[in-house]
Design brief:
The protein has about 190 residues and is mostly beta strands. The chain is built from 3 helices and 9 strands, in the order H-H-E-E-E-H-E-E-E-E-E-E. The chain has one domain. It has a 5-stranded mixed β-sheet with strand order 2-1-5-7-9, with no helix packed on it. Strands 3-4-6-8 form a 4-stranded mixed β-sheet, covered by helices on one side.
Length: about 190
């Protein structure tokens, strides 16, 4: 895997066919008739599942239609919007949907926990789709000896939300570091 730019990813995405049931990772998912280009643009709204879960967290970010809102962040931890010029380092050039995400993501978050930092409470990222297409990206870096839990809560605004969600997370873990990564997917059946 080489570093890919957004432009490289867009070109490669256009070249690749949709996966089929003859591809091992997709053998139980039939995508015939699915056209990712046919779903309307990105729409994201803040949700309330963090409050509903009553989570006591070390840091919290919420994705809105305007970007990323950092509600709170632990001292010394970088919990900030991902720069738009970020070039992916872990995206294979034969994964159509990962390439589409890299080419089209709108909202991204960088989580960088420095060397030796141990967080007793989790970091929480809430992303709620209100319809259309949602391209979400997160890059997580755990330096040597860092230890923390990260909860990503991907949800739909309602049970009947019709949407296309394409999320990618890149995890970089240095020696003796530990990340507990939890992805909650509370998406509607139509997503």
């Amino acid at each position: 895997m080489a570093t890919l730019t957004r432009e490289d990813a867009a070109k490669r995405f256009d070249e690749l066919p949709l996966p089929s049931t003859s591809d091992e990772h997709w053998r139980f998912t039939d995508l015939r008739g699915f056209d990712p280009e046919a779903v309307p643009g990105t729409q994201v709204v803040p949700g309330t599942s963090a409050a509903a879960l009553d989570l006591d967290v070390a840091g919290r970010a919420v994705v809105t239609e305007n970007g990323i809102e950092i509600v709170s962040a632990p001292e010394g931890v970088r919990f900030e919007p991902l720069p738009r010029n970020y070039d992916a380092k872990l995206i294979p050039d034969d994964d159509k949907f990962a390439l589409e995400n890299l080419a089209r993501w709108e909202h991204g978050l960088l989580v960088h926990v420095p060397k030796g930092v141990v967080l007793e409470k989790p970091l929480y990222v809430q992303v709620t789709s209100s319809g259309g297409s949602l391209f979400w990206r997160m890059v997580v870096i755990a330096e040597e000896g860092a230890r923390f839990t990260l909860i990503e809560d991907l949800g739909s605004a309602s049970d009947d939300t019709v949407a296309y969600t394409n999320a990618v997370v890149e995890l970089f873990v240095d020696p003796q570091a530990k990340i507990e990564y939890v992805s909650l997917q509370n998406l509607s059946k139509e997503t």
